[in-house]
Amino acid sequence: MAPDELLSREEVLGGLPARRARVVLFLIERQAAHMVARSGQLAELLPGEQAARERDLAFVQAFALGREAPVRLTIQNLERYAKQWAHLVPDNPTLRASLARLLAQKYTFTVGAIPGIRGVLGLDQDAVREAYQRLHGQPLETIYAERATWHSRARWAWAALGGWLDALPPFWFVFVFTLTLGLPQAIVAFPIAVATVGPLPGIALNLAAGLLSVVTTAAVAEAAARSGIVRYGTAYIGKLAADYLGAAGSGLFSLAIFVLYLVTVMGGCFAISRTLGKFTHVPPVAWTAVLFAAGIWLLARGSISLSLTLLLALAIVIITLMLAIIALTLGHFRLEHLLRPSTLVTTERQHFLGNTIGIILMGYFAEAFVVQCAKVVLPREPSGRALIWGSLAGLGGIAVVLSLWIVVMNGSLDSRLLAGETVTVITPLAAVVGSGAAALGTLLILFLPGLATLRCMVGAFNVAREWIPARSEPVVVLPRRGRLVFQRRGTPAGGPIIGLSYLGFDGSQARFRLNLQLGPLSRQEEASVSGYWNVARVFAKFPEWQKLGSGLELNVIVASGQSVSLRVKSSLVMGYQDIWNVETLSSVAPPASRASTPAPSSWSRLLSDRSRFLLSISPIALTFLMSGWFLAIGWDSFPAVLGILGVISSSIFSGIIPVLLIASSRKKGEVVPGVVLKFVGHPLVLGAVYLIYVVVLLSHGLFIWENPVSRASALLVTVVAFVVTVVTARRGSYKPRVVVEMRLDQREGQRSAFSVVAGGQPAPADVRLHYPDRDRDQRAANGEVAAFGDLRTATFQIPASGGTELKVWVHRVTPSGDSEGLPALLDVRDGGDAKRFDLGLSGGQVVVPISGRASEILIAFPEPAPS
């Protein structure tokens, strides 16, 4: 049968191609929105997952109501990510012709602007052209605009920069990424910090901090390369910390980043407000109010898009401004300034040293961006070589920029002029060089601390939104072929995990199937419901459920044979499974109107979108309020803020967390990378790095800092870091893990495979792959899984390994590189113990404690696995 014969004449006349094309277009837009959101997350230190879940819920709701997609996309977005959504387009000329018609109705484009879309849809093929002529009575060429407007040409030029980034070889992508995102706002305070110890010792301290960062950046890069959830999932460094270090390590990292965000906002306020106040004679407090109003306005509009393309463009502007300032300043360079030792007396030096070390540490924080970078490059270069060496090369570029800046600035300005400065180097520089330096320096302050302030405002807002529960009683649409999954926040290993499937409507009641996974306990129940349903009562007979105290209440609003609308009330996190396909979405029926839906409770009304927004910005508002107060009373030293920030936050997320991550990943990693820098994970190296950062914290808390609050903070952070280290060790974060992975790989040129890793190393095991007509036996640590769609069971005989836990991961890697759990039943026989898990509920993966003795793992696919 020809592809076009999949649609009968009656279906074509009835408009079926157009209806199915709308479903396909909706899926395409969701995939493009996902890629756009991922691009934006590359620029964030701590991207959240809740926004992605809410976006998926909003997509289904919008589709059911016949509304536009909840994310504003452009034709440039669709063109840029054409390869990522190509797998969604059926090989059907009639449907492709209908899809082309819908695109032309929604977007404007010329024929030469969309080579990717034309290739994916086959718009240059005779079959599609003929189908379009047959359906619409006009040539396909009518979908193209004759010429592009100037606004459209500007958009395409901007998109070309993003395309250039995407096309960079992996090494150069990592290098550009690290250098672009790693330019620190502390650079405008570096000459002030260096002046307290002398330029040459300052350069030595800068290079020493760079060497420390080499170890910690390489550590995070290797930990990311060993992580399967980074390669195939949506992981960021916070989730990586949760996977390797558990809740304690993840909590420490999240708290350190949140503090970093807020204190950076305060420091940016000081730098920008004081600089603008100096050169405009407008009170600094007024500028702080303007900054706050502008930031909140942007957050409220949701119009902040900090994509990597934008950050690259801004980095080019920043580097250009720095080079221009250096060129203006070189005429004032004096070698004696550079060679002159610090003239500060000992007591003064001790006081100013409190800012020096912290500011220098703030110059290097590439560790925070390695994981986001790994998500992009590891699918293209799996060995991790480009990730590690590209990160280190970018780090070297930052060290060169910082050293050059120190040489020129401290060689042109007297150290006595710099040492007492409380704002930035721009103020004394303007006094020496003149108005040109003042103008360029003001622009540099607006772009560098200004950009850091904006990014950290967005980051703090997103973190707060993650911590604050969403509207507690949303209305969702559940198709008959899909499933809603409820689980606790964080890792699902401890459960509970509840799967809710819709079975249909018998005329008076909606039928549901509930699947419960609670550790090794697996239960399935069916129920018929009309109106209110307390799901927790179904599981009340199980003692394990009673201990959890998690509630789940549903209210059936309207049901049809193919879908049901529900109001959900629960503290559990909710997400969709198995609905993102044409057949499932085609069955979605519109939910009831607002008038017929029960009113939410008072708590739900309290957490409306507006209330949640106000709660999310409250930490930012408090930070700006404190900044204004400090400016008013004169407690507004930008170097002091950076000094505190560098010692407290950087010691955690740029020092201690990377050490713990590499120690854990070499025991628990799912993947064995092709490149490993052995010295990075050596106990002596890790111990030395850990000790250096602890000494930095203790020396500031006990000797250097004079402010009692700062001293207490440093000591408290030291104690917390030590406690987290002990807790993670006691909970087994540094003990070996056995990982069994089965991967259905749908990417072009990739093969489906299995792998067995124990303690971070390949672990040969006896493997039996059972098909309906044959068995395939082998002993290997990894191998190809042929005909995955026909596979029925896979059995792994794991030899004694000393591992204390087992992770089984059965998943599909989509053509766009995302991981989706596969439905399968898992039986684990560890000695005399037998446990069963429903992998379909837990996203295809589960972590189980084991004894370390020989064990057997049986993975059964109840239905033919998708091929």
In short:
By secondary structure, the protein is an alpha+beta fold. The chain has 30 helices and 22 strands.
Question: How would you describe this protein?
Answer:
By secondary structure, this protein is α+β, with helices and mostly antiparallel strands. The two termini are 21 Å apart. The chain contains 30 helices and 22 strands. Strands 10, 11, 12, 15, 17, 18 and 21 form a seven-stranded mixed sheet that branches. A six-stranded antiparallel sheet has the order 14-13-16-22-19-20, with no helix packed on it. Mean pLDDT is 85; it is low at 1-15, 345-349 and 591-607. It folds into four domains: 3-158, no CATH class; 188-466 and 615-730, Amino acid/polyamine transporter I (Up-down Bundle); 476-591; 737-860, Sandwich (Immunoglobulin-like).
Overall 3D geometry? globular
What is the CATH superfamily of the largest domain? Answer: Amino acid/polyamine transporter I
Radius of gyration: 29 Å
Helix content: 40-55%
Mean pLDDT: 85
What count of helical segments does DSSP give?
30
What is the second-level CATH architecture of the largest domain?
A: Up-down Bundle
State the end-to-end CA separation: 21 Å
Main pleated sheet: 7 strands, mixed
CATH class annotation of the largest domain: Mainly Alpha
